[in-house]
């Protein structure tokens, strides 16, 4: 994106990125357009960008709506296990008015959506590149409606049918989150890219909050609608998306790649208004694609793991690995359990669990300001450190097993942890993994990242209960030592590999990665200072 404000003549930009061209491809030499576009983008503040590109911001937030279902589904699966009528209809009777859902079905219901999400995220690259960003979301909606339909009409004790419905819906969820991240990265101007991509996590939190509220309202019903209504409410969002999709603009990047330049021009006019230099914006997209084509003309999933793209894909995946290593499933998944240990009644513990998700929403809203003020690398690394400290404190507090004061402190720390997590590594993961990929491979890299996210979440949902529950390892809060230790290794990795992508255009990021610049120097590196020549690059 570009704005008509006069470019800053001192703005640094690549003047010799062709020095990194490989093979026999002709060197790229039209850097004037990229330099001018980069300067005008960087001259635009987030507030002014929000005013000028308010339509782009609106459609990015709209396309992120599907991520709400990811959060809703992840929370409703575990929440329904506490609903008596759900256990009655899908479990077995262990005593008078006492029903239990078999452990294997608990694990299956909790993890099957993640399995579907892995395949959904991985398939996004093909679907999105072939049918466009809007086409991918439309397919998500249709698949999601079908999956929800199967769940809603599942009769009692037809556990396998419910499992199939959750698997199908999970497939759409993986595509929703991947597609939203790709769309935001391509439609947003540079000044708002961090805000819109981090809003993916905000929608996930809103979905979790909504799920907790719905189950609280219906959980005590004795009819099957105690769990059918929570399923049915999910229909609202794919229907809203399908209604709005015909009016949503397609990604101009995708249109240019498909040779539909005139359509891309119309989209840019619509998103930024007639007062902006649309021709410069269009040229920036065209020239960036041309520059990337000098590195590789065609792309496959295998290209995500070749050359410098292997590093970019690794970063996109590791941000989600680090989220799980930081113990998010342990702390937030067992927050209600810690509240019960602190002496709260079951109903009050559940109310506090709803409060935990509300705090997460507030934390995400803070990110809208901090992501541009302090940058991606700074916030991610420091909040990872803070989460590590909280985890270790929880571990130490859990050593005295019968200390009521320590239990209260652990319960309070779950609130502190969630606020820290949701102001940092939670939303920033979605920002970083969308920005580090090249424009050519974005949909594929983002899909692989969501696959890793789903896989890690599934593993943690299986492992954590065995570590915490009294009838298994019975470690309780001492599991904080395990995740605290993992976080230490994560902090070291993040220091060396998480780059600062703030205020970097797509072509600048391409050049920085191709030159193998250290992640610690991304923010300060002056691209024109590199004095390589074409002949040296070809050697």
UniProtKB/TrEMBL annotation:
Catalytic activity: myo-inositol(out) + H(+)(out) = myo-inositol(in) + H(+)(in)
GO cellular component: membrane
UniProt cross-references to InterPro entries, sorted A to Z: MFS_dom, MFS_sugar_transport-like, MFS_Sugar_Transporters, MFS_trans_sf, Sugar/inositol_transpt, Sugar_transporter_CS
Domain Major facilitator superfamily (MFS) profile: 59-502
Cellular compartments annotated: Membrane
SUPFAM superfamilies in alphabetical order: MFS general substrate transporter (SSF103473)
Alphabetical UniProt keywords: Coiled coil, Membrane, Transmembrane, Transmembrane helix, Transport
Name listed for the protein in its UniProt record: Major facilitator superfamily (MFS) profile domain-containing protein
């Amino acid at each position: 994106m570009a704005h008509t404000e006069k470019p800053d003549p001192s703005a640094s930009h690549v003047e010799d990125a062709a020095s990194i061209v490989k093979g026999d491809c002709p060197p790229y030499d039209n850097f004037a357009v990229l330099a001018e576009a980069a300067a005008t983008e960087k001259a635009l503040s987030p507030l002014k960008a929000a005013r000028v590109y308010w339509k782009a911001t609106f459609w990015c937030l709209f396309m992120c709506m599907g991520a709400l279902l990811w959060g809703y589904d992840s929370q409703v699966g575990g929440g329904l296990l506490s609903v008596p009528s759900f256990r009655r209809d899908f479990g077995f009777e262990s005593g008078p008015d006492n029903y239990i859902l078999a452990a294997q079905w608990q694990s299956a219901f909790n993890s099957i959506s993640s399995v579907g999400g892995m395949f959904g995220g991985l398939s996004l690259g093909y679907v999105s590149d072939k049918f466009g960003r809007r086409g991918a979301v439309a397919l998500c909606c249709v698949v999601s409606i079908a999956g929800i339909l199967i769940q809603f009409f599942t009769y009692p004790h037809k556990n396998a049918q419910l499992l199939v419905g959750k698997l199908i819906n999970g497939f759409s969820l993986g595509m929703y989150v991947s597609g939203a991240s790709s769309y935001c990265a391509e439609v947003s101007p540079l000044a708002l890219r961090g805000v819109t991509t981090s809003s993916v996590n905000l929608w996930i939190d809103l979905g979790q909050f909504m799920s907790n509220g719905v189950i609280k309202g219906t959980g005590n019903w004795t009819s099957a609608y105690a769990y059918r209504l929570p399923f049915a409410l999910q229909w609202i969002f794919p229907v809203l998306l399908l209604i709005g999709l015909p009016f949503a603009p397609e990604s101009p990047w995708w249109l240019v790649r498909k040779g539909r330049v005139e359509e891309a021009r119309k989209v840019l006019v619509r998103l930024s208004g007639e007062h902006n230099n649309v021709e410069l914006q269009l040229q920036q997209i065209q020239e960036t694609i041309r520059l990337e084509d000098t590195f590789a003309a065609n792309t496959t999933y295998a290209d995500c793991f070749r050359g410098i793209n292997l590093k970019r894909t690794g970063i996109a995946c590791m941000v989600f690995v680090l989220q799980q290593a930081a113990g998010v499933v342990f702390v937030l998944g067992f927050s209600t359990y810690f509240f019960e240990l602190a002496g709260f009644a079951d109903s009050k513990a559940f109310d506090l669990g709803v409060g935990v998700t509300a705090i997460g929403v507030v934390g995400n809203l803070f990110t809208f300001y901090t992501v541009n003020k302090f940058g991606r690398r700074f916030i991610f690394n420091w909040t990872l450190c803070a989460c590590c400290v909280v985890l270790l404190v929880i571990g130490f507090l859990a050593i005295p097993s019968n200390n009521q004061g320590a239990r209260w402190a652990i319960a309070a720390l779950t609130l502190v942890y969630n606020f820290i997590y949701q102001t940092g590594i939670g939303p920033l993961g979605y920002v970083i993994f969308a920005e580090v990929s090249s424009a050519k491979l974005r949909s594929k890299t983002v899909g692989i990242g969501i696959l890793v996210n789903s896989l890690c979440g599934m593993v943690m949902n299986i492992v954590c209960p065995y570590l915490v529950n009294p009838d298994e390892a019975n470690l309780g809060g001492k599991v904080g030592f395990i995740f605290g230790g993992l976080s230490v290794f994560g902090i070291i990795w993040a220091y060396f590999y998480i780059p600062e992508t703030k205020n970097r255009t797509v072509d600048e990021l391409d050049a920085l990665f191709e030159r193998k610049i250290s992640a610690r120097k991304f923010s300060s590196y002056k691209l024109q200072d590199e004095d390589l020549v074409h002949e040296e690059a070809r050697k």
